[in-house]
Amino acid sequence: MRLNKILRMGLLLLCLSPVALVGAATVSISCGAVGVELEVCREGAEAWSDKTGHEIRIISTPNSTTDRLALYQQLLAAGSADIDVFQIDVVWPGILQEHFIDLKQHIEPERLRAQFENVVDANRVDGRLVALPWFVDAGLLYYRKDLLDKHGFEVPETWEALTHTAEAIQKAERAAGNRNLWGFVWQGRAYEGLTCNALEWVHSSGGGNIVNDQGEVIINNPAAVEAIDRAAAWIGTITPLGVLNYEEEQSRGVFQSGRALFMRNWPYAWSLVNGGDSPVRGKVGITALPRGKEGVHTGTLGGWQLAVSRYSEVREEAIDLVRYLSSRDEQKRRAIRAGYNPTWPDLYDDPEVRAAHSIAPTLRKALAGAVVRPSDVTGRSYNQVSNTFWSAVHATLAGKGDAAGNLAFLERRLKRLRRHRGW
């Protein structure tokens, strides 16, 4: 499958270095395009290009993680050499591992030990190091400081408090003429982002995970039912109906334009909502997501990794690019430049990082309590597990049955999947 076919599938060639030395290789890397992600990726790749003399080809991919995974699977199944370095989600190593080379022989053990252990471990499959961590994420709560102060409310600690605060301030602001304000926006489209949101609701309310560490399906429990029914009740009250089609950028657009009081999103949005052209610049605070009455503050562990295709015709150069982009120095630059969160714990105490990346302490706290999606225990079946989960949740949010019925159906489907596919 050549590049023109990839383009028709939705990948977009953005940049080709115009300078090539004799004997130079051309290395293609897929980069995400959420917020300033593409620009920051290009800067790092071009710095490597300047250093080595090799060409860089940047290929943008869909914002939706679900769409991106589907494209990757089509491309890799064809054994294409058109992309050498893949940016992959933290839950994909087990799904895609057969298509990537083992990086263990190319990375010093002390370098791996210096990074977050759980993030490095997420990239190991059957003893192979499938990818290198690039940046780490956890879901966070953004809030309008000015509106909370204006109406005399505290930052909510619980989902119950968030619901009450959002209802009260939305009602008061609309009565005063701010008719477009909503209380809370998040990611509700039927895709991987909804799995992240819903897992936060469930885990923070004492409902556990979708599947436990032993592989048992545990999602159908009273706490999970209550958490998802609570979210369904937000639709049309404090959350717009359109959230059922929101991904990260749609929810950020609503919040950043001043049309929402609260927003759940990843840390990348912090630098954007405080950008020079942002209507809410200086008016936003950030904290850990609320908890249920009996639960704990949590956020879904996210993040992206870099993997080298086993079909690459420029393996050595691709490995060198991955080493450079995932290095401590480059991660520091990305943290200062755009707030991307390093996988090196010591950088959170770096004075330059803390000065430029003011939410570093908040994020480190959120990472400590982050909930991990069950990609490790479910392995190659994870994508089906997640798809089945977000479908049941989306149906509940859209008013197609309640959480009790939909989670019971989900439980039966997952148990059947486990029997047939195993994990």
Automatic annotation (TrEMBL):
It comes from the Bacteria. Pfam families: SBP_bac_1. Its main location: periplasm. Keywords: Signal, Transport. It is found in: Periplasm. The keyword Signal applies. The keyword S-adenosyl-L-methionine does not apply. Residues 1-24 form the signal peptide. One of its GO terms (cellular component) is periplasmic space. Belongs to the bacterial solute-binding protein 1 family. This is Trehalose/maltose transport system substrate-binding protein. It comes from Thiohalomonas denitrificans.
